[in-house]
Amino acid sequence: MVAEAVPELASLPDLMRASTPRPPWRGLLLLWLAALLVDLWGIQQGPLRDWDESLVARVALELSEKPWPQVLLPSFWGVPYENKPPGAHWLIAASIQLWRSAGMGPAGALPPEWLVRLAPALGSSLLSPLLGLVQWQLRPGRRADALWTAAVALTLLPLARHAHLAMLDGLQLTAMAALWLGLLRARGETPLLPGLLAGLAASGLLLLKAPVALPVLAVSLLLRWAERDLDRRAWRWLLLGIALGLAPGLTWHGWHLAWRGDSALVMWGRQGLARVVSSVENHAGGPIPPLIQVLISGWPWLLLWPTGITMAWRERRSRWGRWCLGLTGLASLLVLPLQTQLPWYSLVLWPPFCLCCGPALAQLVQGRLSQTLQQGIARIWLTIGILLLAVLPLRGLSASLATAAGLTLPAGAALVGAGVVLGGSQRPRSQRSLAAWGLVLGWCLSLLLLFSSPVWNWELNQTPAIAPLLPLVSRASRPGELGSLPLLVEEGMHKRPSLRWYAQEALPEPQQAIHSSRALLLVSRAESPERSALAGNLGIGGIHGRSCRLDRRGSQGWNRWLCGPAGADPRLSDVVPDSP
Asked: Domain residues for 477?
């Protein structure tokens, strides 16, 4: 029934067996539509998280309110923002402006989470088909390799999850793939347009994470030069196109330097190169954290990675072998030496991973790997699938097991099916192909179930969660005069960009607020303001000596108190109803 509704799915095995100079456009289009579905599904789930999402959202919101040419200079709560270039922020700001122009939100309202995440998700979805096209350039005529490469990129959890976040990393990977595609398409005597594509992609990197652009462009050019198929005239045209494409990125950095002076170098130094030699905020680095990320998150294709690397080494004199090994080395040099490691830094490793695993998966499906290796991979998939399905009978024991059983059911069933079919040496190629596509489909269904739940939107060591505080700090919960009072939140929460985003104000330092205002709002989990952590930190002159009353009840022990001068009845406005 599915094959009749979507004829392309039924013809995928035939597409992959064909040898034609035309890329498998229809197959890649279907995989891009699947990537759109996976990357957009559930982006409305959960609040914007710390730190990057809320920070990116605030910078984009301020850019959306600026006229030309002030829009070229990003700010964060009115202070010059110098950590990252504003490429992704401009895209989000444009989405916010369109949303406002369409009258979809009341005046002064924050844009919804899905809108803030929309542009990064759309841009990140292009990575799957772009990597398929890159593979086609590396192994022309091998449709299976291109399609399986795109399928691997589609189903990797780290890529899909970060596509849901208002962050720069997914767009960065898309720009890298576009740069490689431009260089690989350069042929003939005047490759100006491919060079322009590569240059524009490099400009994208300069406007996303500037320090990454230089090594990526340099190593990619070195790999292209090593092919020795372009003469001097062709290289002049290629470099001209790259220079034209680089103009927007270089122009912005020149403008930024002219306006902000030495502070414009922060994104190259403290936010870039310094992370190679020093650890920021106790995020200790070295090669171990990213390697652990790969070992945990590379399923179900991790078993194919050693095979892909081995194949690339054997074919190291070919275009694919050279680029596969070269890009893997580039990604390793960008990530493994860093002394500051965050989970999303390892995302750079995944595009080369896909380019190596795609041909290995094609070999597995076509039965061209050694019998021992094929059966080993199939048995491990079968074992993991059985373990995932074994959670199903235990779902009644706890809510966590019930959630896990629901999320992993399609992936577990698909692993079992792929393990059974691909482990048999006498299976027809059509059955093997359908079993592998069934694994892709099952994994995608599990991703959709994951993104339908709030489970996917976990934070990075940011406790407590901000969701219970939102009804207490949001601007809508502080009507009238309450909106003008300083808002104090204990446990250092005033420093978290997510809380500032939803409060729609830069929350003050407690000491500053205590001395600058007679009345204030205190959000605390203590039984009373006098027992709060802030009261102990600020002393008698702080919360002690003020008259406080309960203003609004929250959840998970959080409450909001209205505190005024000692001996006064703090009644600046009517009591706000309790939050649900």
From this structure: 467-564
| pLDDT tens digits along 458-483 | 766 566 778 888 889 888 888 888 88
Q: Which residue has the higher pLDDT, 195 or 510?
A: 195
What sign for the dihedral angle of Cα 248, 250, 252, 258? negative
d(CA 23, CA 146): 8
**Euclidean distance between CA atoms 230 and 3, whole angstroms:** 44
> Are both 313 and 418 inside the same structural domain?
no
pLDDT at 244: 97
Q: Are residues 36 and 130 in the same domain?
A: yes
- Residue (of 152, 170, 161, 251) closest to 203 by Cα position: 251
Which of 329, 364, 399 is at the close of a domain? 364
Distance from C-alpha of 381 to C-alpha of 412, rounded to nearest angstrom: 9
- In DSSP notation, 439-462 reads HHHHHHHHHHHHHHSGGG---SS-
> Which segments within 182-302 are labelled E, that is strand?
none
CA–CA gap between residue 546 and residue 534 (Å, rounded):
13
Q: Tokens standing for 291?
A: 């390697």
Average pLDDT, the chain: 86
Q: Is the pLDDT of residue 556 over 60?
A: yes
The rounded percent of the chain whose pLDDT value lies above 90 is 53
Give percent of the chain above pLDDT 70. Answer: 87
455 Cβ contact partners less than 8 Å away, ≥ 6 residues apart: 403, 407
Q: Does residue 18 lie in a domain region?
A: no
Confidence check: pLDDT of 322 > 50: yes
Pairing of strands 520-524, 487-489: parallel
Asked whether residue 214 falls in the same domain as residue 280, the answer is yes
Q: Is residue 421 part of a domain?
A: yes
Same domain flag for 445 and 524: no
Which of the four pLDDT bands, split at 50, 70 and 90, describes residue 243?
very high
The crossing angle, in degrees rounded to 10, of helices 52-64 and 87-101 is 60
User: Of all helices (H) and strands (E), which one includes residue 17?
Assistant: helix 12-17
Helices then strands, counting H and E runs in the chain, come out as: 26, 6
Beta pairing class for 79-80 and 547-553: unpaired
| 542-546, long-range: CB < 8 A, 24+ apart | 542/510, 542/514
pTM of the predicted model as reported, rounded to 2 decimal places: 0.89
Q: How far apart are CA 482 and CA 472, in angstroms?
A: 11
Task: Report yes or no: 202 and 246 within 8 Å, Cβ to Cβ.
Answer: yes
